[in-house]
Design a protein that fits this description.
Blueprint: E1 22-24, E2 37-40, E3 44-47, E4 60-63, E5 70-72, E6 84-87, E7 91-93, E8 112-115, E9 121-122, E10 135-138, E11 144-145, E12 158-161, E13 167-168, E14 181-184, E15 191-192, E16 206-208, H1 214-219
Parallel strand pairs: 1-3, 2-4, 4-6, 5-7, 6-8, 8-10, 9-11, 10-12, 11-13, 12-14, 13-15, 14-16
Length: 228
């Protein structure tokens, strides 16, 4: 294990290689102001609360592709200028899902997110309040987009979801008022929870779906509100 607060406010460490078969403890790298990027390998078994909080130079994070489940704590990158996130792991929350307990919530610098085919769920509140997020790509493994998953992502313009998404939770895209492109690869339109797509300005948003299933989207609740 990397123990809690192990490198707390270490201002000299610029690079980090993780080879430990164990967890990264709470606030283990909090305040490491020279750290610019991190890669979480498959040997890491969990990442606890605030692990990379306040890393003032940290702009890129990569969770490499893995088959094993990865538990994540809350607000891992709070007060860090994270701009790019690659998520190749199937994750679960250590704490109960809420607008404050997501690993990535309320990160005001995050601009791009790539979620690979390994993940099956985008959890409730996963990117809640990421107001600078501009682009998100969701892989074919994802089946569910949770409640409020992208709520408050007011800069989100381009969103791509994979072929196996079947449901989008309540207010998943509330306050996503600047969406201009949605590309859906799912053959059947995902079932939408209450107000899941309501705040998207559908007159200014291009929806691209499989051509052979266009009629299905045109008749589905909330999807049918887009101009086709």
């Amino acid at each position: 294990d990397v123990m809690p607060y192990a490198f707390y406010k270490n201002e000299e460490m610029a690079t980090l290689t993780l080879q430990n078969l164990g967890k990264i403890g709470e606030s283990a790298f909090e305040g490491c102001s020279s750290l610019t990027s991190i890669t979480i390998p498959t040997c890491v078994t969990s990442v606890e609360d605030y692990a990379f909080k306040g890393c003032s130079s940290l702009t890129e994070a990569k969770f490499v592709d893995r088959e094993t489940l990865l538990p994540l704590g809350k607000q891992l990158f709070a007060d860090s200028p994270l701009a790019s996130l690659y998520l190749g792991a199937k994750i679960e929350y250590i704490s109960e899902a809420s607008e404050e307990n997501s690993p990535f919530c309320n990160n005001k610098s995050l601009k791009t997110v790539v979620i690979t085919n390994v993940e099956s769920d985008i959890y409730d509140y996963e990117f809640y309040g990421c107001s600078s997020l501009e682009s998100a790509v969701v892989g074919d493994g994802v089946e569910r987009i949770g409640r409020w998953a992208f709520s408050g992502c007011s800069s989100l313009k381009d969103f791509v979801f994979g072929s196996n998404v079947t449901s989008i939770g309540e207010e998943a895209f509330s306050d996503c008022v600047n969406m201009t492109n949605i590309t859906g690869r799912a053959i059947l339109p995902p079932v939408c929870g209450a107000q899941a797509l309501d705040d998207i300005n559908k007159l200014n948003c291009t929806l691209t779906v499989p051509e052979k299933k266009l009629a299905s989207y045109q008749s589905a609740e909330q999807w049918k509100e887009f101009p086709f």
